[in-house]
Every structure is written in structure tokens, then in C-alpha cells.
């Protein structure tokens, strides 16, 4: 039995084996990826401005950066794979991709959880909001999110990197992930599989329960309030709830159980690696007047500067 370092490369499967469908996917997912990067760069630029300096926009700025990195880990490799017969990736590249997917994915989970706490304080403790959500605390929460993502990804990646791989080398996924790689290892991987489910599953499920609990408390606190108060609270939380459902639904489906149907995992993974990062800027922009106003000012300023140069 050879060790893992002897496996020089893996072959990633496409979402379809039909050549015509692959060309269509190439155009569609290239457009999705371009929209993801452009949309999140726009939100990143707007939310980092001095006019939007509340904790919510501080978290949203980091979320947009994570979304760009998260989709960039998988999308370019997937898109280029639609144009070649064998979409190959080196062993080191595969392990790096595995690390990146879990690093940015877990960081996003923790950021969404931190944003839920921010919304809870804003609605349930409005008078103490400036004191409770200080810049120092927000920075610490973001730092913990990044550190937690790094720790989680290390614990997921290291056991996989140390497994022996002696063939075949076809990964039943469009990117390197835990379950598809465990299927290729030349060893008993039950312990690693259970550890992966426990690691990713517990994080996804526990954070999701925290999020649900926070919104139950928020709704309970609105009992007896006016219709205007309900509308304001729901408009404040609506964007975040939509993002949470889009991201946590597919993620929990893939990682909460030992995977037996990798084709379903591939379909679900498209949502949390590309669709959700693409929709996040639209969701937050369309439901947020301050962000829309800042975007209009930014566009007006750029048009004005171009006309001035002309």
C-alpha cells in the first residue's frame, strides 16, 4: 500500500457527462461566478465606507469578503472543467481546496451566527445596543469566526491528507471534499467519516439551532407591539433569515450524515458554494435602504467622475 503522497493527481467529475449540457453549464456558472465576485465586491466597497459604520455593516463587509473567497475556491476549477475531458487537480491542490472550502464555509457559519446576535441586541436591547455591540466586541467576534474556521478546517483536512490513496483517483464531486475523498482511501475510514460528520455536522446544527432560538426570542419579544414595530423588526431580520435558510439547508443536508449518495451531495453543494454567495449581495441590497442609497451614491460619484474626465 502506497502512502498519500504517491497520488500525484485526482480527476474531478463534472455535474454532467453530456457535452452539450457542459457547454451550457460553462456559460451559466461563469455568469454566476462573475455576478458573485462583482456583487460582493460592490457590497464590500459600500459597507467599508465611513457612512455605514454600524456593526451590521462591519459583519456584512467580512461576509462579502468570505463569499468571494469561498466561491473562488471551487468555481474556477469547476468552470474550467466543463471545457476539458479530464478535469484534473494535483494532490496538493486537492488538499488545499478541501482546506479552503471548510475554512471559508465554517467562517461564514460563525459570521452568520454573530450577525444573528447583532440583530437580537438591536431589536431586544435597543437602548443598550451601542454599549453591547462595541467595535471591540465586533472585532473579537469576527476574529473568533476566522480562528474557528481555521481550526475546523485543520481538523477536517489533516486526517484526510494523512490517509493512503492508491487508486482509483476519480473524485465523485466537482471539488475535493471529505466524503468523496474518504471513498477513495485505501484504508478503513469509518473513524474519519464519523469524525467528519461530528465536526461539520455539530457545527452546522448547533449554529443553526442558535440562529433559530435567537429569532424565536426576537419574535416573542414583539408580542403586543404595533404593526410598525413588527414590520421594522422583520425587515431588519428578513435578509439574514433568507441567507441562513439558503446556506444552512444544503450544508446541513450534506454534512449532518454519513454520505451514501454523492450525486445528491454535488447538487446540494452548488447552492452553498456558488448560488448563496451570488444571492447574498442581492438579498442584503434589495432589502436594505441604507445599502441601496450608498450604492446609488457610489454609482453617481463614478459616473460624475467619468463625465468630468470626459
Describe the protein:
It holds the Pfam family 7tm_4. One of its GO terms (molecular function) is olfactory receptor activity. The chain crosses the membrane at residues 24-44, 56-75, 95-117, 137-155, 202-222, 234-256, 268-286. The protein has 310 residues and is mainly α. The chain has a single domain (7-304), classed as Rhodopsin 7-helix transmembrane proteins (Rhopdopsin 7-helix transmembrane proteins, Up-down Bundle). It has helices at residues 19-47, 55-81, 91-124, 129-132, 135-161, 178-184, 190-221, 227-255, 262-286, 289-309; strands at 9-12, 87-90, 170-171. It has a three-stranded mixed sheet. Helix 3 packs parallel to helix 7, helix 7 packs antiparallel against helix 8 and helix 8 runs antiparallel to helix 9. The protein is globular.
Tally the structural domains: 1
User: What's the SSE pattern?
Assistant: EHHEHHHEHHHHH
Task: Report the CATH C-level class.
Answer: Mainly Alpha
How many runs of DSSP E, i.e. beta strands?
Answer: 3
Q: Separation of termini? A: 68 Å
Q: What structural category characterises the helix and strand content? A: mainly alpha
Strand order of the largest sheet: 2-1-3
Rounded mean pLDDT is 83
Report the helical percentage: over 70%
Please tally the helical runs, counting DSSP H or I stretches of 4 or more residues: 10
Gross morphology = globular
Over the alpha carbons, how many angstroms does the gyration radius reach?
21 Å
Can you tell me the residue ranges where pLDDT is under 50 for at least 5 consecutive residues? Answer: 1-5
Relative strand content: under 5%
Largest sheet: 3 strands, mixed
**CATH domain topology:** Rhopdopsin 7-helix transmembrane proteins
Q: What's the architecture in CATH terms?
A: Up-down Bundle
CATH H-level name... which superfamily?
Rhodopsin 7-helix transmembrane proteins
Amino acid at each position: 500500500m502506497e502512502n498519500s503522497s504517491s497520488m500525484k493527481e485526482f480527476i474531478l467529475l463534472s455535474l454532467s457527462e453530456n457535452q452539450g449540457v457542459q457547454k451550457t453549464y460553462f456559460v451559466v456558472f461563469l455568469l454566476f461566478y462573475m455576478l458573485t465576485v462583482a456583487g460582493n465586491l460592490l457590497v464590500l466597497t459600500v459597507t467599508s465606507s465611513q457612512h455605514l459604520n454600524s456593526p451590521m455593516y462591519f459583519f456584512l463587509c467580512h461576509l462579502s469578503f468570505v463569499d468571494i473567497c469561498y466561491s473562488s475556491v471551487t468555481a474556477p476549477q469547476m468552470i474550467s472543467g466543463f471545457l476539458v475531458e479530464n478535469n484534473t487537480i494535483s494532490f496538493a491542490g486537492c488538499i488545499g481546496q478541501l482546506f479552503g472550502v471548510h475554512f471559508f464555509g465554517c467562517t461564514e457559519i460563525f459570521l452568520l451566527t454573530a450577525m444573528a446576535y447583532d440583530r437580537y441586541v438591536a431589536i431586544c436591547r435597543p437602548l443598550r445596543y451601542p454599549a453591547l455591540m462595541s467595535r471591540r466586541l465586533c472585532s473579537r467576534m469576527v476574529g473568533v469566526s476566522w480562528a474557528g474556521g481555521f481550526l475546523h478546517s485543520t481538523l477536517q483536512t489533516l486526517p484526510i491528507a494523512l490517509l493512503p490513496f492508491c487508486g482509483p483517483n476519480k473524485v465523485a464531486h466537482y471539488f475535493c471534499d471529505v466524503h468523496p475523498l474518504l471513498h477513495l482511501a485505501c484504508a478503513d475510514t469509518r473513524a474519519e467519516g464519523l469524525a467528519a460528520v461530528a465536526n461539520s455536522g455539530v457545527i452546522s446544527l448547533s449554529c443553526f439551532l442558535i440562529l433559530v432560538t435567537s429569532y424565536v426570542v426576537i419574535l416573542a419579544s414583539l408580542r403586543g407591539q404595533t404593526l410598525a414595530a413588527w414590520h421594522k423588526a422583520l425587515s431588519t431580520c428578513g435578509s439574514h433569515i433568507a441567507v441562513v435558510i439558503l446556506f444552512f439547508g444544503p450544508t446541513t443536508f450534506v454534512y449532518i450524515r454519513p454520505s451514501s449518495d454523492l450525486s445528491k451531495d454535488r447538487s446540494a453543494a452548488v447552492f452553498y458554494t456558488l448560488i448563496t454567495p451570488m444571492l447574498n449581495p442581492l438579498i442584503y441590497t434589495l432589502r436594505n435602504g441604507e445599502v441601496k442609497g450608498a450604492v446609488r451614491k457610489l454609482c453617481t460619484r463614478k459616473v460624475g467622475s467619468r463625465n468630468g474626465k470626459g
